[in-house]
Amino acid sequence: MAYGENKIVRVIRGRRPKIVVIGGGTGLPVILNALKEQNADITAIVTVADDGGSSGVIRDYINVVPPGDIRNVLVSLSDLPQEEKDIFQYRFNSSDSFFAGHAIGNLIIAALDEMQGNIFDAVQSLSRMMRIDGRIYPASNEPLTLNAEFVDGTTESGETEITAKDKRIKRVWVTDTDSDDKPKAVLPVLAAIMQADAVVLGPGSLFTSILPNLMISNLGDAVRQTKAEVIYICNIMTQQGETDHFTAAEHVQVINDHLGGHYINTALVNGAKIDMTKFNPADYDAYLEPVRNDFAGLRAQDCRVITADFIDQHSGLVFHDGKKVADEILNLAFEAYSRREREQD
């Protein structure tokens, strides 16, 4: 290890370890920020199938990719002063029928999308403005619609509508919102996955934040083909309408089933007891219970299990401890690089 600019610098033969993180939702920025603090070479691939909240309203008014998850990832990897990041994250408190509840950053992303003509170039421009340490790539250059089939045989479209059904989901897939074209990821997304030392899935909503990315056909193919260590960060709590009563092994099984094989190499699973007396389900009713470990079920899928105290619990909420998770990811990235080196000798 070497040190510089108050950050730990870990290198693999003169370069920082290449980590690709794929997902969306509130858990993703926690992991990205921790990896940034350890000077990993980060590429964040962010879901574009969200249709809720401010993102969904903007998507209805302006035909753009929903910006919410992209906004949060930009802030997590930005080297701007905190005051400027706070402005970007600010939500209007106005009673105005349009601006109420909107984040300034969402409006800026939507404006740049229109100016640049596509979301990929818009995010690259904004990344330069916000002094991003790493790369941020939308999973697709076009807005996508999430579709689901439930175990009872019925189907539904749209993230919000799917979760509102509160039914067990059998499978999901994505379609281009505005055309019959097959959703595709752009070449930089695929190159990042193929060149990575580690590809990280999660944390985040299994069916609505992680799988929508993998269901983009060429992106899913890249995850199947990469020589990187494919790591799944298992959620700490189950989620109503998506993973009710799921074990850790069932989370991995769903991803493997959608990919068509055993492609998750390692699962990071919380092993610490959660103090439920500090947890207030009334405030966060989408979270039901701690995800139960199932080591036998994971090993049956050729998945290595790393279990540790991965939680940061305070103020009645349960989060992943970003530093602990980042440490494990970097260790696995070094292992994967060394393994490839041996195979090439």
Name a few traits of the molecule.
alpha/beta; disordered N terminus; LPPG:FO 2-phospho-L-lactate transferase activity; 2 domains; seven-stranded parallel beta sheet; CofD-like_dom_sf
What features would you describe in this structure?
This protein is an alpha/beta fold. It folds into two domains: about 1-45 and about 140-345, Rossmann fold (3-Layer(aba) Sandwich), CATH 3.40.50; about 50-135, no CATH class. It has helices at about 25-35, 55-60, 70-75, 80-90, 105-115, 120-130, 160-165, 185-195, 205-215, 215-225, 250-260, 295-300, 320-345; strands at about 1-5, 5-10, 20-25, 40-45, 135-140, 145-150, 155, 170-175, 200, 230-235, 235-240, 265-270, 285-290, 305-310, 310-315, 315-320. The strands form five sheets. The chain has a seven-stranded parallel β-sheet, with helices on both faces. A three-stranded antiparallel β-sheet has the order 7-6-8, with helices on one face. A hairpin with a 4-residue loop joins strand 6 (about 145-150) and strand 7 (about 155). The two termini are about 25 Å apart. Keywords: Cytoplasm. Its main location: cytoplasm. One of its GO terms (biological process) is regulation of cell shape. It is found in: Cytoplasm. This is Putative gluconeogenesis factor.
